[in-house]
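re: ur question from earlier - yeah i can do the single chain one, its not a big deal. heres the input i used so u can compare w yours
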Amino acid sequence: MWIAATALLASMLALPLAQNSWHGPEVAAVLAVSATAMFANQRWAIALVVIAELMLLPTLAPRMMLAPSNLTAAVAGLVAIGALVPGLLAMKRAAAAMVLITGWQRTQSSCRRAHAGLIAAGALAAVLPFL
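and the output i got, formated as tokens:
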């Protein structure tokens, strides 16, 4: 419940932000729908929440760091990034759910591979906007 509540808060804070190359409002909408599915006790939704949070992070980070003229956007970005932390900490659980969604046999090796893939995707998504 905590992950779903913070994901919904982050999505509500990110929705009004202007669209950029990462399409932040669209990703925030996916995060809101995924968090709603988590509230409905859908176990698969944790995978979508983490993926949406990984894709929303590059949209929020520049708003927080590069928006000194607009204090409201900077504070909203800071609070939204803080709300993303519980979901990102559940990445291992999301990797296990992602293995089940994709139809792979759930073994320790496949869960580790999915976890490594999520970490790599998150690192790539975090670095690309700054290049």
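The chain has one domain: 2-130. not sure if urs matches, ping me
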